[in-house]
Inverse folding.
């Protein structure tokens, strides 16, 4: 997960805050959960307060800075396009219907709590009993930029395995078999007596789905005699 620093240079002595808007013009409600955009009148906490750093931009000018945890906005697989706008608070509390905007919309794209579209790939591990093929374990997870992606409890994984020269899958590991990811965000399933043949090459197709988006990969492995 990452943090985006929002900065506004303005006259000193102001109260500045930021608001995040989606493509439909709804504002993010910091009082709610991920992707919690609402109409202006319905958002309970639509503002992110900025801290003033006096004279940081020259005499009479201040920098107003806020740190935005991107995972707060969107930690799902869906790519969210939104904008950040600075406002000057006129009254005792933020009011987006009357407060004046003080910046142009700054575009943001957020996916899995990171800025921009992530390069996401499946990583997996397959192991069998080295002498008889009587045991099979499959592990699978998602990574982006070398880091494991924290999948939600609604994420699923499935796997189909066949001998490379076979016309049909010989082993099906369903989403129910895998269940939820473990505490390391890895899907793991072990199967006894999977009917693997010694000295044969197999191909596994693994699919992970999160938030309506799916990733698939294939991996070859050999059961040793």
């Amino acid at each position: 997960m990452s943090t985006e620093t929002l900065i506004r240079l303005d006259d000193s002595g102001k109260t500045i805050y930021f608001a995040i808007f989606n493509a439909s013009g709804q504002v993010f409600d910091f009082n709610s959960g991920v992707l919690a955009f609402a109409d202006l009148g319905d958002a309970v906490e639509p503002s992110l307060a900025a801290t003033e750093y006096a004279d940081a931009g020259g005499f009479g000018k201040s920098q107003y800075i806020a740190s935005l945890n991107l995972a707060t906005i969107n930690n799902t697989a869906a790519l969210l396009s939104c904008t950040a706008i600075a406002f000057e608070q006129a009254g005792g509390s933020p009011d987006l219907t009357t407060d004046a905007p003080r910046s142009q919309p700054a575009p943001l794209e957020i996916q899995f709590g990171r800025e921009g579209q992530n390069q996401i790939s499946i990583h997996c591990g397959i192991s069998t009993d080295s002498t008889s093929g009587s045991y099979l374990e499959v592990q699978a997870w998602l990574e982006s930029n070398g880091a494991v992606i924290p999948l939600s409890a609604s994420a699923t994984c499935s796997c189909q395995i066949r001998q490379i020269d076979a016309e049909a899958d010989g082993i099906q590991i369903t989403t129910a078999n895998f269940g939820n990811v473990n505490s390391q965000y890895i899907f793991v399933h072990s199967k006894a007596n999977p009917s693997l043949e010694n000295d044969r090459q197999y191909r596994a197709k693994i699919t992970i789905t999160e938030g309506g988006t799916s990733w698939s990969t294939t991996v070859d492995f050999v059961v040793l005699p």
User: Anything to note?
Assistant: The mean pLDDT is 91. The radius of gyration is 25 Å.
